[in-house]
Amino acid sequence: MAYVITDACVSCGTCEGECPVSAISSGDSQYVINADTCIDCGSCAGACPTEAIKPGE
Questions:
Q1: Which of 16, 23, 42, 49 is most buried, by the most CB atoms less than 10 A from its CB?
Q2: What SS3 state is found at 43?
Q3: Is 22 exposed, middle or buried (0-12, 13-18, 19+ CB in 10 A)?
């Protein structure tokens, strides 16, 4: 399952640069992860300063 960004996201953009497959982009109110592109590597979750990125369910 792809990682997801929770409401704890502060839109800092740190995660976007960490994604090796460019699956993260700026959404309307926070960043979003494209589930079809995400390879479940967890790089974004490790970089997130607010721990807003979690494995999908």
A1: 23
A2: helix
A3: exposed
